[in-house]
C-alpha cells in the first residue's frame, strides 16, 4: 500500500513540475511581447535582452501612429470581425434550425455538402477567390471579406448539434398549433433558447475574423483598407525595422483576445471541441 | 394548399439557402473558374477576359520547376517535424492534466490553449524577435543550457543564425509546435474525459498500474480522436502559410529557399510574379496532393480508428 501511494505521490510531483514548465514555455512569448512593447529597438537586441517592462511604450506607440494608420486598421479589424459575427449568428442558426427541426427531401445530401466544405483546404481557394473578387470589382472593399463568410459550415454544424440536443420537437409543434409562422418559431422560440450556443459561436467567429490574414492581405491593397495584422506585417519590410513599435502593435492586437479568453475560456474550449467529441 | 402547409414545406429550404447561395458564388464558382484559368496565361495588367489558352503548359512548368519541388519538400518536412511532436507531447500532457489536476484543470488547459486563439501573424512577429541571432532570447537560453552537464554536449557552442536556408525549418517547426500543441492537448483531454471511470477502477482492482492503465485503456480508446486530430494536423500543415510568410518577410529573406512552403510559393507566383494561370495550376496540384494524403490517412488509420480492436 505504501508503495502505491509513493508512486502516486511521485506521479503527482512529476506531473506538476511538467505542467508548470510547459505552462511557462507557453506563456513566455506573450510575456516577451508585452515587455518588448515597452522597449526601444536597441534595448530589445542588446545584452542582456530586457526581462522587465521599460519606459518606451509611448515612444513605440508614436512610431506606430507615424508609420501606419494604426487606429484606422484597428477599426477595420473590428468592423470585419463584427460584421462577420453578427451575420454568422443569424444565418448559421437559421440554417442549423432548418437542418435540425425539419424533414425535407435532400436534407442528408445537402448537409453532407455543408460538411464537405469543411474538408477543403481554405488557402487553396485564395487564388480563385482573389480572381472572383477582382472580376466583380470588390478589391479594397470590406464586404469582399465578410459577405462570403456570413454562413460558415462550422457554425451551421455547431448550431444544428445544439438545437437537436436542446430543443424538444414538441415545443416547435406546439408553437405551430398556436399559429406561429415558421420564421416566428425560429425568432421567438428557438433563438432565445440557444443563447449559450450563440455566445460560443460568436466568440469563435469573432476571434477567427479578428486573426484573418492571408485573404485580407491580397484583397485589401491600400493602407486605409488593411486590417491590423496586414498593416503590422508591412512594417517588417522596412530597413531598420522598428521591432519595439511592431511589438507594441502586436500587443494591442492580441490584448483584446486575451481579455475575452480570460472571461470565456471554458465556453470557448467546450464549443471548439464539442464537434470533435461527438463525431 | 393552405398557406401554413405551404410555408412549412418550403421554409427549411429557405432557411438553409444562404449557405448554398454563398457557397455557389464564393466557393464552387471560383474553384471551377480557377480550373479553367489553370489552362490559360493571364496577368492582371492584361485586363479582365484577355487570357490566352496555353494547354497544359502551366502544369508542365510547375511540375518541372525545381523551386516548386523545393517548396513541396519544405512543406512535407515541416508537416512531419512540426506535426509528430505535437501529438507526442499532447497525448501524455492531456493524460497528466487529467490525472493530477482537478480544480485548476480548466485554467491549465486554457494556458496551453492560448497560442491557438492568437493571430498567427502576431505569433510569427513575436518569434521573429525571439529568434534573433545576437542576444535573441532563444539563443541565450540555448547558451545557458549549454553550460549544463550532459545536455550541453548536445547543443551547439555558438549562436545559431536561425534565418539561414538550412536552419529556418527548425525555427518554423518550433513555432508551429508551440502554436498547436495546446489545441491537440484539448482535443485529447476531451476524449480522455469521455472514457468511463469504471474502466480504470476495474483495471485498478485487477492490479494494473497507472502506466498500464494508460497503455491498455487510454491509448486504445483514444484512437478515434488520434485519427481526427492527425487528420486536422495533416490538412493544416499542408497549407501552412502565415508563419513562414511572416518569418521569411514575405519571401524577401535569405532563408526563403529553405523555408518557403508550397502555399507560399503559390502566393508568390500569383501576387509577386503575377502569373495567375500558373498559380491556379499550383493550387490544383496541391489540392490533389492533399486529397491523396487525406485518402491514405483514412485508408491506413481511419479503419483501425473506427473498427478498432
Automatic annotation (TrEMBL), chain B:
Membrane topology of the entry: Multi-pass membrane protein
Keyword tags: Cell membrane, Membrane, Transmembrane, Transmembrane helix, Transport
Matching InterPro entries: ABC_transporter_permease, MetI-like, MetI-like_sf
Short name of one Pfam family: BPD_transp_1
Transmembrane segments: 12-36, 76-101, 113-131, 170-189, 221-241, 273-296
Domain of life: Bacteria
GO biological process assignments: transmembrane transport
Listed SUPFAM superfamilies: MetI-like
Domain ABC transmembrane type-1 intervals: 72-297
Compartments it resides in: Cell membrane
Protein name: L-arabinose transport system permease protein AraP
Organism whose genome encodes this protein: Meiothermus taiwanensis
Originating gene: araP
